[in-house]
Design brief:
alpha+beta; Glutaredoxin; 4-stranded mixed beta sheet; about 25% strand; globular
Length: about 90
């Protein structure tokens, strides 16, 4: 199963929703809290090609995007396949 890396902040409702969906899928999640970490937030913008919002999600080496993109993958039936990949 692929590991999911998710960059979050504590009080972000989209982060909570994304983490709940991943927990429902029994995904292995590596969460990185970026609350108050300006250097990490700047690095995140660089890593995503310009996005400064959270959550930002990778499944394995594949950049997914944010919560909306994660939910869209699930609705299309692609999230389970991505999580199952090695």
């Amino acid at each position: 199963m692929s590991t999911v890396k998710i960059y979050t902040t504590r009080f972000c409702p989209y982060c909570v929703h994304a983490k709940q969906l991943l927990a429902h899928k029994a995904a292995t999640v590596d969460e990185v809290a970026v609350d108050g970490d300006r250097a990490m937030r700047a690095k995140l913008v660089e890593m995503t090609g310009g996005s400064s919002t959270v959550p930002q999600i990778w499944i394995g080496d594949t950049y997914v995007g944010g919560c909306d993109e994660l939910v869209a993958l699930d609705r299309r039936g692609e999230l389970d396949r991505m999580l199952a990949a090695n």
